Amino acid sequence: MNRNIRITIIEDDETIRNGYAYLIDATEGYDVVSTYVSFDEAAKKIAADHPDVILLDIELPGVNGIDAIPKLKKLLPQCFVLILTVYESEKLIFNALANGASGYLTKNTPSAKIVESIKEVKEGGGPMSINIAKLVIKSFQKNQESPLSKRETQILELIGEGKSRSQIARDLFIDLETVRSHIKNIYIKLDVNSRADAIKMAKQNKLI
Amino acid sequence: MNRNIRITIIEDDETIRNGYAYLIDATEGYDVVSTYVSFDEAAKKIAADHPDVILLDIELPGVNGIDAIPKLKKLLPQCFVLILTVYESEKLIFNALANGASGYLTKNTPSAKIVESIKEVKEGGGPMSINIAKLVIKSFQKNQESPLSKRETQILELIGEGKSRSQIARDLFIDLETVRSHIKNIYIKLDVNSRADAIKMAKQNKLI
DNA sequence: TAATTAATCACCCTTTTAGGGTGATTTTTT
DNA sequence: AAAAAATCACCCTAAAAGGGTGATTAATTA
After folding, report:
1. What's the predicted TM-score (pTM) here?
2. B175 and B81, same structural domain?
3. How far away is chain A from the Cα of B104, in angstroms, using its nearest Cα?
4. A101 to chain B: which residues are within 8 Å by CB?
5. B48 by DSSP, 3-state: which?
6. Which residues of chain A lie closer than 8 angstroms to B135, CB-CB?
7. Does residue A167 lie within 7 Å of nucleic acid chain C, judged by its CB?
8. Which of residues A137, A163, A194 is at a domain's end?
9. What is the per-residue pLDDT across A145-174, written as a single tens digit (0 to 9) for each?
10. pLDDT of A76-119, one tens digit each?
């Protein structure tokens, strides 16, 4: 039989912390095994709590939530970290995920949804608030009205992979001079004059 | 007052197509305005349907769903495309999103959830099945046990941006020779001997 | 504390690459 | 028919890349 899901909450606001703790602990199948007000507090004892899921706030005193993630994952490699915050900035989201967070919920999420997300993350899912999902999806979407032609985009992608002109020529079965010609046109269209600037421009405008 | 959400379904399997059409159309606030068996079929008439949301299958006869997305967006720039498919391959998901899809659901999604997702996408959300969300989140996560040091990772990132040794040296306020030294160590650790191979390795192993 | 790793810099060397200029030809697409 | 895209050619110079073989000084970890 499945044992209860063990949860630790790291959140500095007492009201929110106790509110979530009460709500989640009251739910069948969920145990809130510990709560902490900061990462520094948590670091000392959390390993002994062996939680399955950590609910982590971002705006914490001392070490912030984002930086806490890799440290927590080091202490508890099997544990899932679920971010629960008011922030919806793209940078924070991507940094949190890059650092090993398994999900990202905003605090306006209904508590039933939070409880559900804890289970999802435990079962290997990746819960996100819909507004977060929107940002994530947007980050994948390329600019549909690129000034570059197909071939130019293709070549710019290869430049983004660090390939030289001659490598690109070999990859595309075209002449080195043709590649040069395309790159020149790319530079004119993007108004740049180096690979680095072209890549920067391309990423800014989501051309690649 | 809000008018009903207009939906078009493009799906080649008759049973599935009619099933979804019936289910969604029966829901208060949702109108299925048209259904098509392929993009080629749809292309002729879909503009006149002016749907708000298109439910799109990937495995279609003729033009596949992925390639159909940009064409549909061109015909109906304001319209949202929601992918509904059995495929869960990373490549397909990312290509679909890159091509302009606003959400990605797998066909095992309960119909109530599909109906809800249509509304979400209409309201600017980004619905995803939880298994899809997991893949998407995983794609953001970096390898926590990189063989590279912090500085090496930092330099590899700049190489990934197409920067030259001297540019990197300027960016980091260190000597050109120090950059060289780091790059040499990166090459040794990754067992490569060119920028392109280093970037490839780094991306494969999610080091950057 | 001793040993290892990380980060810094130096100078040897050759080949490749990048970027600018200025063309042309042939497909495609509009 | 005109415009855009894709192809190739040859001029040029400076910069960059990659390999080798060192050393010194922090940090960090065993």
Report:
1. 0.90
2. no
3. 10
4. 137
5. helix
6. 126
7. yes
8. A137
9. 899 999 999 999 999 999 999 999 999 999
10. 989 999 999 999 999 999 999 999 999 999 999 999 999 999 99
